[in-house]
What we know:
The chain is α+β, with helices and mostly antiparallel strands. The chain has helices at about 5-10, 90-100, 125-145, 150-165, 170-175, 220-235, 250-255, 265-285, 290-305, 315-325, 350-365; strands at about 20-25, 40, 40-55, 60-65, 75, 110-115, 185-190, 195-200, 205-210, 330-335, 340-350, 370-375, 385.
Amino acid sequence: MDITERFRQVFGSDGDIREYFAPGRVNLIGEHTDYNGGHVFPCALTIGTYAAARKRDDRIIRFFSDNFPEAGILQTSLDDKEYRKELSWCNYPRGVIFAAAQAGYAVDSGMDILYFGTIPNSSGLSSSASIEVLTGFIIRDLFGFDFDGITNAKLGQTAENSFIGVNCGIMDQFAIAMGKKDHAIFLDTATLKYEYVPLDLTGARIVIMNTNKKRKLGDSKYNERRSECERALADIQKIRDIRTLGDLDEEGFLAVQDAIVDPVCRKRAKHAVFENRRTIRAAEALRDGNLSLFGQLMNESHISLRHDYEVTGKELDTLVTEAWQQDGVIGARMTGAGFGGCAVALVREQAVPAFTAKVGEAYLRKIGYDAAFYVAQTGDGPVRKS
């Protein structure tokens, strides 16, 4: 698609029209740890969100998505700072503009922006975070703001937390804003200290498996899980001086787990602690070229997400269980928030065609509709393309 030409068709051809791109992301391991002060291990993808944009000489903002063309042009104003349900997906870029103004980067004129995403909606590959980071990148470029990728990630997280109402951590926005081709990002979400780890998969490929079950984080139990972890942390803090669940290792958790009054909250905290330690070990395994251990830790991650965090569900469990049974599979787990969305597998390259065929057949038989499969390519963070 020539996105600039499409922009001209929708908005007209006047003015300085610029093109941009921001990736999606997949998290290899470290799920529901980012808001618990733990580590995550995502990488940016080559699929993502494209945009064309130009400044206006008034305070009107017009949005158009080629993924939802039937919605037409959606219009708002810089002076309207309220969440508007009728503006649907536009609340994500609106939230970023709102967050930027709060942070001292006030957009002083309107814009026309056309978006086109190649990330399947509601897949768990962060289409919303991709739009957020892309919007931050656009306003930085159009208005000459001086902020870096980490600040851009924080703006996206603030948009989710304060404008959209989803109490997410920073992983998705950070992975997208700071992505680096052929690398994963080992990120300590408590300190934002990060390291690029080369993704040397030595003959293996990352295969993303999409359940095609639609979900919405704001309507899911995502916020409930965060609240349960916060209650567990508060109980532990009565007997132990820690700041986050990520401050504990496995032994430390077992020593204090009885302080957590609610057994459900205890399970949630156990996952957060043990998943964080798995992620640290997984990054070490990848640095050492130990794909077998990395795959084992992926498998353990899924089991914990299924049993202790309870965010998988029939569709994700079917994909992962079937994946585990295939030749050439190193490891597999759900990825993203859960409740639908995607799973991710490491598969020996020569086994990929048979893997997708067999897992797909089993999924259709057991679930009743098709899954989708993508052999992932890692990519860089956001860029201006013209």
